[in-house]
């Protein structure tokens, strides 16, 4: 029997209650996003881990994908899917008509290249998950993405959508964020969508906290050539004071302080996040 999880070492039961399709909206009571039936089906598909479904209350996947306008027929690239939280939704959603492409951690880096062990581990797990479920995930595939060494995301003008979730700070720390944005621009078709969700800083916060300044991210995307067409507060969290001792990783799901003040950070929930929709000029 094939594993239903991304990590081969985990064996989580799938018999869980369906997630709520109307998640809490912390900031804008009048901001609504209609979730189509295909997204609804993807949110409740049996490949999703129970622990991941529990995080829907913080990550609002139905509303987020609705805001980005992702269609079942899209060719979509997800940058650094990590443990596959969104892959478990996107790959089934696109299986019949579209194409999910994971711009994955390099699972087989060259000998002698120093790469964090967790990236190799997660890269291998996601590649295995896509292979194990190839019969139900249609054209779903992966490429290795390790900027600046591996920076190409596919043939120019070949993708309808590129999405990234909570990754910008990693590339900024490595000094490659503008290169990543440029690669996204190149792979998108004219009129294609670049969707960004990222931990949102207060002005003047240090990059080491894991939070990024929203206006700076918009300015960088516009410098590359994108146009900001909309922003959403669907992933906002005003409970997040952003002054935590271990930065954003103090909050769930990381909880870097362990049991120290755990109840306090669980009550805050996951970070305050910007949600930005850019398009490539036609």
UniProtKB/TrEMBL annotation:
Q: Does the keyword Signal apply?
A: yes
* Signal sequence residues: 1-29
Ordered alphabetically, the record's keywords are: Signal
Entry-linked InterPro entries? S-AdoMet-dep_MeTrfase_Alr7345, SAM-dependent_MTases_sf
Q: What is the protein name given in its UniProt record?
A: Methyltransferase
> Which organism is the protein's source?
Shewanella loihica (strain ATCC BAA-1088 / PV-4)
């Amino acid at each position: 029997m094939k594993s239903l999880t991304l990590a081969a070492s985990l064996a989580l039961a799938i018999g869980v209650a369906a997630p709520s399709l109307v998640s809490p909206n912390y900031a804008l009571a009048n901001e609504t996003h209609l979730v189509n039936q295909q997204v609804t089906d993807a949110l409740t598909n049996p490949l999703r881990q129970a622990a991941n479904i529990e995080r829907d209350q913080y990550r609002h996947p139905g509303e987020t994908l609705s805001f980005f306008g992702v269609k079942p027929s899209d060719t979509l690239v997800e940058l650094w899917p990590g443990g596959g939280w969104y892959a478990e939704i996107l790959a089934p959603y696109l299986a019949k008509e579209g194409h999910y492409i994971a711009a994955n951690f390099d699972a087989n880096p060259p000998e002698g290249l120093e790469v964090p062990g967790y990236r190799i581990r997660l890269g291998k797990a996601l590649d295995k998950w896509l292979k194990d479920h190839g019969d139900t995930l249609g054209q779903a595939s992966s490429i290795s993405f390790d900027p600046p060494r591996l920076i190409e995301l596919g043939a120019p003008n070949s993708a309808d959508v590129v999405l990234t979730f909570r990754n910008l700070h990693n590339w900024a720390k490595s000094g490659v964020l503008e290169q990543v944005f440029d690669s996204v621009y190149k792979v998108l078709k004219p009129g294609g969508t670049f969707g960004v969700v990222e931990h949102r800083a207060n002005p003047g916060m240090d990059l080491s906290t894991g939070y990024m300044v929203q206006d700076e991210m918009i300015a960088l995307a516009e410098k590359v050539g994108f146009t900001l067409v909309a922003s959403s507060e669907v992933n906002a969290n005003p409970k997040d004071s952003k002054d935590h001792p271990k930065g954003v990783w103090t909050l769930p799901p990381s909880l870097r302080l362990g049991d120290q003040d755990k109840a306090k950070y669980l009550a805050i929930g996951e970070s305050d996040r910007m949600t930005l929709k850019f398009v490539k000029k036609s």
